[in-house]
Fold each of these.
Amino acid sequence: MNIYSDYDLKKHNTFGMDVKASTFIEYNSVDELKSIIPTLGGNVLHIGGGSNLLFKGDFEGTILHSAIKGIDIVEHDDKEGKVTVRVGAGEVWDDFVAWAVEHGLGGVENLSLIPGEVGASAVQNIGAYGVEAKDVISTVETINLKTGEARIFTNEECSYAYRQSIFKNELKGMYAVTHVVYTLSTKAELKLEYGNIKAVLGERDSLTYADVRQAIIDIRNAKLPDPKVLGNAGSFFMNPVVSRDKFLSIQKDYPQMPFYEVEGGVKIPAGWMIDQCGWKGKSLGRAAVHDKQALVLVNLGGATSDEIVALCETICRDVKAKFDVDIHPEVNFI
Ligand code: EPU
C-alpha cells in the first residue's frame, strides 16, 4: 500500500488539471483496503483512471485508488462458448479488452480504447459503438467503505442505464469496486451496426474480434483527442433524451438531425447540437471544443477548471437557446 501527502493529481486526471490531494492512498488488495477503512474520516473520494473527472480545485481529503490487478478465467462453458472472467478493478480497461481479443473472446471489442480502469467500467456503465459494459457484466464485487463488509452486486442490482448505475446514484461514494466479473463468449456475434464500423472494415470474407477492435481503434483515433497530447475527459456531455413531440418539432427545422429511438423518447446527439451552434473547434480562454468531435471539451494547455466550466455553461446556454433542450455534463465535477 502507498500513502502520500500533498499529492500531485496531474497524473490522475486526464484533463490535466494542476491540483493536489491532502492524502492519496493506493491499495493492492482487498485486505489492504479493509485495513485502511477504519482510519478514513471526512472527505473520501475513490477514483479510477481519472478519465471522467474535472477537479475544480485542490481536494481536501483522502483519495483512494485501487491497484488490484489480475485477469482470471473462472468458468469456461465449452458447449455454450461462455467464458466467465474476473478482473481486478485496477486493471487498465483497454488492457482487459486487448486480453479478451487475444484469447478469442468476444463482447468487449467495441469498447476498445476507452480510457480508464475496470472498476470504473462498472460504475459509469461505459459505452461506445452500440455496446455498454452492462451487456457483459455478470457481477460486481465491492467493499462497503464505512463497514468494510464485502457485497457482491448482481447485474440487476446495479440498476444500469445509459451512463448510470446504482454506484453513481443511490449508493454514491458508499462502495469501492474491487473486482468485476464479465461474461464473454467465443461465439459472441459481432456488433457492426453503429456509425461507420462497416465502412471502416470494408468488404471481407470473415471478421474476427481483433478486426473489430482495430476498426474501433482507428475510428476513435481519428475523432477523439489523445489525453496525453490534449487534456480531455472524453464526451463532456451526455446525449439528452427528449419527448417525441419535442423531437418532431426540432426535426421540422433540421431534417438531417441524427437521432436514436430509445425507451421513453428520442436521443439526440449533444455533439451534433453543439456543432450546429457553431462551437466545434472554437475556444473560450484556454478551454476549447474539439475540432473533430464537438462533444469533447479540451484543455489547450494550462486551462483552469473555471475556464472549462465557463465553456460548459456557455455551450449549455447556447444549446438551450437554439433547440430548447437541456444538456448535462457526463463528467463528474469534484
Ligand atoms: N456529430 C456531429 N458533430 C459533432 C459530433 C457528432 O454532427 O461534432 C454527429 C455525428 O455525425 C453522428 C452523431 O452526432 O451522427 C453521433 O456522434 P458519434 O457517433 O461521434 O457519437 P456521440 O453520440 O457523439 C457517443 C458516446 C461516446 C462514444 C460514441 C460512439 C456519449 C456521451 N458519448 O458519442 O463516448 O465513443 O457515442 O459510440 O454517449 C465518452 O463517453 O467519453 C465517449 C467518447
Amino acid sequence: MRNILITGGAGFIGSHVVRLFVNKYPDYHIVNLDKLTYAGNLANLKDIETRPNYTFVRADIADLDEMRRVIREYEIDGIIHLAAESHVDRSIKDPFTFARTNVMGTLALLQAAKEYWESLPERYEGKRFYHISTDEVYGALELTHPEGVDAPFSTKASSGQKHEAYGELFFTEETKYNPHSPYSASKASSDHFVRAYHDTYGMPTIVTNCSNNYGPYQFPEKLIPLFINNIRHRKPLPVYGKGENVRDWLYVEDHARAIDTIFHEGRVADTYNIGGFNEWKNIDIIRVIIRTVDRLLGNPEGYSDELITFVTDRLGHDMRYAIDSRKLQRELGWEPSLQFEEGIEKTVRWYLDNQEWMDNITSGDYERYYEEMYKGR
Ligand code: NAD
Ligand code: TYD
C-alpha cells in the first residue's frame, strides 16, 4: 500500500497520525486532506510539512466531486478517515453541521473510494477504508457499581463482567449503539454507513471506537487544554454539573500507534475498541490538572483551586464512558505505553511550553492566516 489519504490531519488526533505515518513510512505518500475548519490548524504539522512523502490538500469531505478528484489524482489505496466535527457542546447548538460533515461527508468519501477502487483491475485488493469513531456511540454507563463501588473501577480484571441488575460495566465491541448527543448520533450514523459499504459492496472497511484522547495539539475548547489555559490566565474553570461524570482517558500518541497497528494488521470488516483502562471523574482530573499546572508555574499548592466554578450541566450529559479494549490487546498485541501520571505531566508541560500555539488560536490569528492564504480559491 503506497498512497494513503488521511482526512482531518490538521486536527488534534489526525496531526499525530500524519506525523507518525510520515516519519515511520518514508515509502508511503501521505495525503492529508482537511477543510481547515476552526479546529484544523496546519501549525500542528510544522515539523513535517516539507517532507517529500507529504502533501496537504484543502478540501471538504462532503464535496463528492472533490473527493472523486483527489482519490483518483493521488491513486489512493488506503484511507484513514478522521475528519469530523468533534465537540459535543457545538453539536448541541448546531446539529446540522454535524450531520453534514460526519454523515454526508463520510458517505461522500465512501462513495468516491468505491467508484475509484471498482474501476481498477484489482478492485478492492490491497485497499482499506479505516474509519475512526468514538466510544460515545455506545451511549452512557451508570456511575455506581451495583455492589456500591464508585467509578473509577476500570481495571482489566473487572472488565468483561456483567451484572444482571446493572447491565454492562464496560463498552465492548458487542455493546449496542445507543447515542444520545447530536455528535454521537452523527458518528453512529457514519459508522453504520461504513459497515454498509462493506456488507453491500464488499469494501474492505474497519471501524474503531476510542475513548477520550488527551495530549498536545488539542483544540482548547476541550476540557484538558481549556482548563490548562484558563489556569494560566487565572480564568474560571467551568465544571459542568457536579463534576461527577466519568471519562476514560488515553494519551493521543497511544491512539495513533493503535491506528497504525490496526490499519496494517486489523481484520477487514471488524471493529476494535481502543482505550487505556483509565477512568477519571471530571472533578478528580481537574484537581490533578490544577496541581500540575500550579507546580510547573511555581505557584503554591492549592493556589488555583478557587478558579473551580460549578456551572449548569451540559444537556443530556452522558454520565460515564468506559472502554474494554482487551480484544485489541489480545488479538493485535497493542497496549497503551504511558501511565496517566506521565501522560498528563507531558501534556501540561507541552501546553505551557507552547504558549504561542495556544495564543495564536485564542486570538484567532491562525484563522485569519488561512483566510489570507486561500483567498480566491
Ligand atoms: P478535531 O476537531 O481536533 O479535528 C477534526 C479535523 O477535521 C479538523 O482538522 C477539521 O478541520 C477537519 N474537518 C472538519 N470538517 C471537515 C470537512 N467537512 N472536511 C474536511 N475536513 C474537515 O477532532 P479530533 O479530536 O482530532 O478527532 C478526530 C476524529 O477522532 C473524529 O472523527 C472524532 O470523532 C474521533 N475521536 C475523537 C476522540 C477525542 O477524544 N478527541 C475520541 C475518539 C474518537
Ligand atoms: P470534552 O473534553 O468536551 O469531551 P467529551 O464531551 O467528548 O467527553 O469533555 C470532557 C468532560 O468534561 C465531559 O464530561 C464534559 C466536561 N466538561 C466540563 O465540565 N467543562 C468544560 O468546560 C468542558 C469543555 C467539558
